[in-house]
Specification:
Layout: H1 2-15, E1 52-55, E2 62-67, E3 77-84, E4 92-100, E5 107-112, E6 120-127, E7 130-131, E8 135-138, E9 148-153, H2 164-170, E10 177-180, H3 195-200, H4 213-225, H5 227-235, E11 237-240, E12 251-252, E13 255-256, H6 266-280, E14 291-295, E15 299-303, H7 324-330, H8 340-352, E16 357-362, H9 381-399, H10 407-419, E17 423-428, E18 434-439, E19 451-455, H11 464-470, H12 475-492, E20 496-500, E21 504-512, E22 515-523, E23 534-542, E24 549-550, E25 583-588, E26 595-602, E27 608-614, E28 619-625, E29 631-638, E30 645-653, E31 656-664
Parallel strand pairs: 1-11, 9-10, 10-11, 15-16, 16-17, 17-19
Antiparallel strand pairs: 1-2, 2-5, 3-4, 3-6, 6-7, 6-8, 9-21, 12-13, 14-15, 18-19, 18-20, 21-22, 22-23, 23-24, 25-26, 26-29, 27-28, 27-30, 30-31
Length: 665
């Protein structure tokens, strides 16, 4: 049975690895040996093995995504899609058809528009006579908004462990979106010398370092077959940016530490990797990946690209043994991690934002950090002997691939934030550990904080204890070194407010007008498949305060309205879904003074009658409209002449009646 499943997976991945691009050189792919492929596959999902996804929600639209695995490569597949108000797809508000082929790796991306703001929708695809899983998504709110919730994640190495954090997030029913800060995939081959990797069969295909478009496509295919990641995408819209491992380790605009001349042209590799990213991720395709999202008047979310857009090459060896030449390069005022255009875009968005809170989706550690001198008070003689080896590695970890390697731009932005009146929360990934900082100009001095920063740990990628374990150090010595590093960071960094170097998980960000609360949901274990994460720490920052303090209410209360989850199993639907009901979607504003906007879904082109009555049942106004097509309709109703009080609005069409209440001021 295992061999049959592996052969099927090999075919799915082979279909996901072909390409006909005129941009990137294509090399034919041979069929992998069945036992080389160990990804999960659910035969019930054919031809939508990779599930569904949504992302980049705006007030009136959202990206819908899927992938088809057709029986032949030399074909064009027509894919139908629907988006509805209910989990059974009976109240359809939009539908359409698109075509896909091997040119896009048989991925499908739809920008479903004409939707209502702040509304949960359910969607699905149909192709080759089969339905996909039903997905759940949500549009962004418009106007006044009182409660937003986001899950923040990064760094999911398929070979390092299970995606338990994704599973935990998938079980939430009141998130506005999942914010993914990069390292969604890793470009490395699996380290098959590690027993767990072999035993758990977390070996991706192709099990080589990724270089070509076919390689990157195949790696996404393996990841998206993972059931925990598939459930995350099924249940929530994702707002994502890339980091380095979507291309190569420690990448910058023109190269990467993990790219050698023998591996070919870097720009060709980068084009291939980013093309695969756009094909496989539910992001809106535009000139830049950095972009902005609004969640009513509460949140302005700015997603940055500190990696592939304009970053200069990192300056290495800038720690305690740095040469004058290295320090001169490091402190060059023209060195950039954002580029001029993105920096100006960022500062303009912060300045112009009228939202209560500004969230920055940022890949790498922003706050200045002092990793030295090491606190040796609790180190044994053996631990002290290891310091000459450990110190350069620790320095490199904190100084090479973060904003600390771009100090001129780092301090320029910190200065800008200090002069701004906005409430800024920096959300960061990459570091595989949990941190919280009050953002100041210097780590070892008590200075006014200009913003706060929260670092989410890795979903599964190796953190400090696992790196030491892989080095086969004795357990007692590993614990000793970790304790010394923990003590060092607390002593050297007065702006540090939270630190955990060993656990995996995610950060839940709960936003109210008066405060932002960050909650770290963590687990030591990624080697066993379980979504049992615990709330370990919680901090809050009050509006206008610009610093972290212990949260007052832990955990933060859920939203009052919980959305129904999308069904776990593939739907048992006919080959077409008929939408049958007249549905009232929204009446706003509530209360209203002169004009009331009514939004409703009409399943036909039959006339719709709007009847306003008072609470004694007296009709006080009527309106009749003639829809030109079925779908969502919005009309403005003049209520200026009505007396103040409570009223009923009836919608009648073809024998169907919907009733909603509203208040006239």
């Amino acid at each position: 049975m295992q061999r049959c499943i592996a052969i099927t997976v090999a075919l799915v991945l082979q279909l996901g690895a072909q390409e006909l691009s005129p941009v990137v050189h294509w090399e034919p792919i041979t069929r992998p040996h069945p036992l080389e492929v160990t990804a999960d596959i659910d035969p019930r999902l054919w031809p939508f093995y990779h599930g569904v996804a949504s992302g980049d929600p705006l007030e009136d639209r959202v990206i819908l995504w899927t992938r088809v695995s057709p029986p032949a490569l030399d074909t064009t597949v027509t894919v139908d899609w629907v988006i509805a108000l209910d989990t059974g797809l009976t109240q359809i508000v939009r539908r359409g058809s698109v075509q896909t082929s091997s040119y896009r790796d048989f991925t499908v991306k739809v920008d479903a528009d004409s939707l209502e703001a702040d509304r949960t929708y359910y969607y699905a695809f149909r192709a080759l006579g089969k339905w996909s899983l039903i997905g759940r998504t949500k549009t962004a709110p418009r106007g006044q908004y009182s409660h937003a919730r986001f899950a923040v994640v990064s760094c999911s190495d398929y070979t390092a462990g299970y995606f338990n954090a994704y599973e935990h997030i998938a079980q939430q029913n009141d998130l506005d979106a999942v914010i993914h800060l990069g390292d969604y995939i890793y470009e490395y081959a699996a380290d098959t010398t590690q027993p767990w990797v072999r035993n758990a069969e977390r070996i991706p295909w192709p099990n080589i370092e990724l270089l070509t478009l076919s390689d990157y496509r195949s790696r996404y295919a393996v990841y998206r077959l993972d059931p925990q990641l598939r459930r995350l995408h099924q249940q929530h819209p994702v707002i994502a940016v890339w980091d380095d491992h979507e291309v190569a380790n420690d990448a910058y605009a023109d190269g990467a530490e993990n790219h050698q001349p023998s591996e070919g042209d870097y720009h060709e590799r980068k084009r291939a990797a980013l093309r695969a990213y756009y094909e496989w991720m539910p992001v809106r395709e535009q000139r830049h990946l950095y972009r902005a999202f609004s969640f009513g008047d509460l949140v302005r979310l700015l997603m940055l690209d500190t990696r592939h857009e304009a970053r200069n090459k990192q300056v290495r060896n800038v720690g305690s043994q740095a040469t004058p030449a290295s320090l001169d390069s490091l402190n060059d005022p023209n060195r950039t991690i954002l580029g001029t255009e993105q920096y100006e875009w960022l500062t303009a968005n912060i300045t112009q934002s009228s939202a209560t809170w500004t969230l920055l989706g940022n890949q790498v550690m922003f706050s200045p950090v002092a990793p030295l001198p090491i606190d040796t008070a609790q180190l044994s003689a053996i631990g002290r002997l290891l310091l000459p080896v450990a110190v350069p590695l620790i320095e490199q970890r904190f100084t090479t691939d973060s904003w600390n390697n771009y100090p001129a731009e780092q301090h320029r932005l910190i200065g800008f934030l200090g002069s701004s009146t906005n409430n800024v929360v920096v959300l960061t990934g990459d570091f595989h550990s949990s941190f919280a900082f009050n953002v100041t100009g210097a780590p070892n001095q008590q200075q006014p904080s200009v913003a706060v920063e929260a670092l989410t740990p890795s979903v599964s990628s190796r953190n400090f204890d696992e790196i030491l374990r892989a080095a086969q150090l004795p357990a007692a010595l590993s614990q000793e070194l970790l304790a010394a590093l923990d003590s060092t960071l607390w002593k050297n960094n007065a702006h540090l407010r939270l630190l955990d170097l060993t656990k995996h998980g995610y950060v839940l960000v709960d936003v109210l007008p008066e405060r932002v609360q960050a909650e770290w949901y963590l687990s030591e274990d990624v080697l066993n498949q379980s979504p049992s994460l615990e709330l370990v720490s919680a901090l809050q920052t009050l509006r206008g305060q610009r610093r972290w303090e212990p949260a007052q209410t832990v955990p933060a209360p859920n939203k009052t309205q919980q959305a129904l989850p999308a069904p776990a199993d593939p739907p048992d639907l006919p080959t077409s879904v008929e939408d049958r009901r007249l549905v009232a979607l929204a009446l706003y504003p509530q209360p209203a003074a002169t004009m009331l906007t009514a939004s409703f879904y009409c399943p036909s082109v039959d006339p719709v009658e709007l009847i306003i009555s008072d609470y004694q049942g007296h009709t006080v106004g009527t309106m009749r409209i003639h829809p030109r097509e079925r779908g969502v309709h919005t009309v403005a109703v003049d209520i200026a002449s009505l007396s103040a009080g409570m009223y009923l609005l009836q919608l009648r069409s073809a024998g169907r009646i919907e009733v909603e209440r509203f208040v006239k001021l």
